[in-house]
Amino acid sequence: MQVISRHNLRNDTIRAFESSILSTFGVELPGSTYELVELSHSQIDLVLLDKEPLACYIDGSPSLTVKGANTYAPSKNIVFVDQGAIRFVSNGADIMKPGITRVDSSIEPGDIVIVLEEAHEKALCIGRSIVPTADMLGSSGKAIESIHYVGDEIYHFF
Q1: Phi, psi of 69 (to 5 degrees)
Q2: Mean pLDDT over residues 104-122, rounded?
Q3: If we measure between CA atoms, which residue out of 86, 60, 70 comes closest to residue 155?
Q4: Taking a C-beta distance cutoff of 8 angstroms, is the pair 65, 53 a contact?
Q5: How many Å apart are CA 150 and CA 42, to the nearest integer?
Q6: Cα dihedral angle (148, 149, 154, 158), rounded to 10 degrees?
Q7: Which tens digits make up the pLDDT trace of 120-129?
Q8: CA 121 to CA 127: how far, in whole Å?
Q9: Rounded Cα gap, residues 82 and 96, in angstroms
Q10: C-alpha 25: how far from its chain's center?
Q11: pLDDT in tens, 38-69
Q12: What are phi and psi of 133, to 5 degrees?
């Protein structure tokens, strides 16, 4: 993965980005500088907040990164998994229904979600919901497609 371009975001873009993060994840971003890092061969473009890779665009939608979710503790669009799922999710596996223990009540298919492990509430991955909240708790099947996870190239980019 290579950097295609790097540039500071404009004030109107920053306001829209911050507003989207607040409404989606319940997080107020305190950054004073926002730099967009466009990457090759990735559905993710990083947004550096004060030179830290704490946010991103996933297919054009603003999101926190795993590091950002661990820094700012989101209150919306979160899914908790049990300890048995940690090893798999941390290696990029999609999230299966049996491993999910708690879910935010407003998640719809296609929403970007943050997957946390239940014991310490640390972010393991950022993913896209495949099913609505009502269908996430179950005995079989996939619930969330993993997009960015602990240990991937994005996590270790800087």
Answers
A1: -65, -35
A2: 96
A3: 70
A4: yes
A5: 16
A6: 150
A7: 999 999 999 9
A8: 16
A9: 11
A10: 9
A11: 998 778 999 999 999 999 999 999 999 999 99
A12: -50, -45
**What's the CA gap between 146 and 154, in Å, rounded?**
13
Contact between 94 and 127 under an 8 Å Cβ cutoff? The reply is: yes
Positive or negative, the CA dihedral 22, 26, 31, 34 is: negative
Asked if 114 contacts 21 with a C-beta cutoff of 8 angstroms, the reply is no
Altogether, the residues listed in the chain come to a count of 158
How far apart (Å, rounded) are the C-alpha atoms in residues 24 and 111? Answer: 9
Average pLDDT over residues 8-37: 95
3-state secondary structure the chain: CCEEEEEECCHHHHHHHHHHHHHHHCCCCCCCCEEEEEECCCCEEEEEECCEEEEEEECCEEEECHHHHHHHCCCCCEEEECHHHHHHHCCCCCEEHHHEEEECCCCCCCCEEEEEECCCCCEEEEEEECCCHHHCCCCCCEEEEEEEECCCCCCCCC
pLDDT value at residue 140: 92
According to the model, what pLDDT value does residue 41 have?
73
